[in-house]
TrEMBL record:
Taxonomic superkingdom: Eukaryota
A Pfam family hit: Glyoxalase
Extent of the signal sequence: none
Name this polypeptide is given: VOC domain-containing protein
InterPro entries membership: Glyas_Bleomycin-R_OHBP_Dase, Glyas_Fos-R_dOase_dom, VOC_core
UniProt organism field: Adineta ricciae
Length: 154
């Protein structure tokens, strides 16, 4: 199941838009819609699935604005790049790229906290290039071996 859309609120709208525009580019997301008057910005691939809008009140001590958002990454390399670029752009580490077998054996994710306290994740559930690498090399060898054996014994 994919994420359809969600929205977060930020106390520094322009900083958040700049941060997400840079970081989400690593996953192929781009700014698709800007609502005039700094009311909202929508990011996505073919349609906006992630929205940012200004919060109504300023951040105070103990103020909670955070949400958890997981973005689909096409590969583990994209997860790594997301994490690297997010940290370079001011995010705080909340879990470096790596396997998270507590969820399932192919779950590869990285977590960061943005400037507004949102927990942002990039996740790849199954990078087929990692999984079939050994099979791709083994299959031709087995086919040749079987062919040689058939010729020899039949």
């Amino acid at each position: 199941m994919s994420l359809d859309h969600l929205s977060i609120h930020t106390y520094d709208f322009h900083r958040a838009v700049s941060f997400y525009e840079t970081v989400l580019a690593t996953l192929g997301y781009k700014r698709l819609i800007t609502i005039p008057g700094d009311r909202a910005v929508g990011f996505g691939g073919r349609f906006p699935s992630f929205w940012i809008s200004p919060a109504k009140t300023p951040a105070g001590e103990g103020s909670l604005v955070g949400a958890h958002i997981a973005f689909v990454a096409k590969s583990r390399r994209d997860v790594d790049e997301f994490y690297r670029v997010a940290l370079q752009n001011g995010a705080k580490d909340d879990g470096p790229p790596g396997l998270r077998p507590i969820y399932h054996r192919f779950y590869y994710g990285a977590f960061v906290i943005d400037a507004d306290g949102n927990n942002i994740e990039a996740v790849n559930h199954f990078d087929w290039r990692v999984y079939i690498g050994w099979k791709t090399m083994l299959t031709p060898f087995l086919l040749v071996a079987i062919g040689v054996m058939m010729k020899k014994y039949f």
